[in-house]
Write a structure and sequence with these properties.
Layout lengths: L1 H28 L3 E2 L5 E2 L21 E5 L4 H4 L4 H18 L7 E8 L6 H18 L7 E6 L7 E7 L2
Parallel strand pairs: 4-5
Antiparallel strand pairs: 1-2, 3-6, 4-6
Length: 165
């Protein structure tokens, strides 16, 4: 009987020690993290990202269209204004055909063609075309975008426009 009591006491002691160890570990884990200077940092809280409202979500597929205006017309100061008017008119036509005249563009990719040795010039032209489009056309007013070189095999502009749903 004395032996059973001793086993029970020994078992209770081990359980108490294990419980104490678990409580110490939980206590240490709950302490704030400090920097080398000793100032506490806030622990990162998990961010909860809510689904954006439907109207602020971009469509998964872009609307693609080509405009047969040579990018060089936008680099020539004599034809630049006429080229922009022509571009705006053709974009209005493209949007009307697709019933997108009242839509909002979210992201725009503009591709301008040009010789391979002048890819930077073509890319700069595409960027300037996008910036002008953003300033002058209500559909593109609040969009983001970027210009790229479209290759040397053609002499036109390509657009890939992601509209809001």
């Amino acid at each position: 009987m004395r032996r059973d009591r001793m086993r029970t006491t020994l078992l209770a002691g081990w359980l108490f020690a294990d419980l104490f160890l678990v409580l110490v570990l939980v206590g240490l884990a709950s302490l704030p993290v400090t920097t080398k200077e000793g100032t506490p940092t806030s622990s990162p809280k998990p961010s909860v990202t809510a689904e954006p409202p439907e109207r602020d979500r971009l469509r998964k597929r872009p609307v693609d269209f080509d405009i047969e205006i040579p990018p060089a017309r936008f680099r020539d100061s004599g034809s630049q204004a006429a080229a922009m008017r022509d571009l705006l008119s053709r974009i209005d036509t493209e949007l009307a055909e697709r019933r997108l005249s009242r839509s909002r563009a979210g992201f725009v990719l503009v591709f301008a063609s040009g010789p391979q040795e002048a890819t930077g010039v073509a890319q700069d032209t595409a960027e300037r075309i996008y910036q002008s489009l953003r300033r002058r056309h209500k559909v593109f007013k609040d969009s983001s975008g970027v210009g790229y070189w479209a290759g040397a095999n053609s002499d036109h502009l390509e657009f890939k426009v992601f509209f809001y749903e």
